[in-house]
Amino acid sequence: MLKVALTGGIGTGKTVVLVCFANLGAPTISADDVAHECLRAGTPGAAAVRARFGDDVMRDDGSVDRLRLAAIVFREREARRDLEAIVHPAVRAAIAAWGDARDKDGAPIGIAEIPLLFENHRETDFDRVVVTACGPDEQVRRVMARSGLAADDVRRRIEAQMPLAEKIRRAHYVIKTDGSLDLTRQRAVDVWQRLQQDASNLAG
């Protein structure tokens, strides 16, 4: 199976492109979705977050209040490292298990959306890397629209990640998402066709 990672900066359209790939028939998984599961009530991840960050970041049902937690970890580098040490090993293991299962199913391609792929040095786990990209002003606009965060808070989150230009430089394929949704979808189709050819070459 051709193992593909989908990554990019915050607000660059990763989720939209992942849905496009899923609609084209690709098995997909999102690291963010897995992380959410790792922090739901009753999980070891939620317990570890409570122990490290206290009750203020917990909801009444015992799950993690991700907005309150994010306000801390994007302000304090040490806090962000501590959270990553809690969440990332579980997410990595879950995605690896998912990939093994899809490989056994005979899927020619499996695509995992991993926002911090390069930051966590995980690119070597995959055969191809696809990066979504758009301009910085568009990133800020999108994240503000969906989160309600102030522009300065969004820029702080962008700055906490590897520069988008460096991610583009390391990518096998880049999907620009500045244009219309239809144009983004067409670009995803174009990359999907190239990935199918890559998978065929790998199998042959």
* Average predicted local confidence, pLDDT: 94
* Structural class category: alpha/beta
Main sheet attributes: strand count, strand direction, barrel closure: 5 strands, parallel
Overall 3D shape? globular
Short summary of the structure?
The protein has 204 residues and is α/β, with parallel strands linked by helices. The protein contains nine helices and five strands, in the order E-H-E-H-H-H-H-E-E-H-H-H-E-H. The chain has helices spanning 14-23, 31-38, 44-53, 66-73, 77-105, 136-147, 151-159, 164-170, 181-203; strands at residues 2-8, 28-30, 109-113, 128-133, 173-176.
Task: Explain this structure.
By secondary structure, the chain is α/β, with parallel strands linked by helices. It has 2 domains: 125 residues, P-loop containing nucleotide triphosphate hydrolases (Rossmann fold, 3-Layer(aba) Sandwich), CATH 3.40.50.300; 60 residues, no CATH class. Helices cover 57% and strands 12% of the residues. Strands 2-3-1-4-5 form a 5-stranded parallel beta sheet, sandwiched between helices.
Question: How are the SSEs ordered, and which strands pair?
Answer:
Elements: E1 2-8, H1 14-23, E2 28-30, H2 31-38, H3 44-53, H4 66-73, H5 77-105, E3 109-113, E4 128-133, H6 136-147, H7 151-159, H8 164-170, E5 173-176, H9 181-203
Parallel strand pairs: 1-3, 1-4, 2-3, 4-5
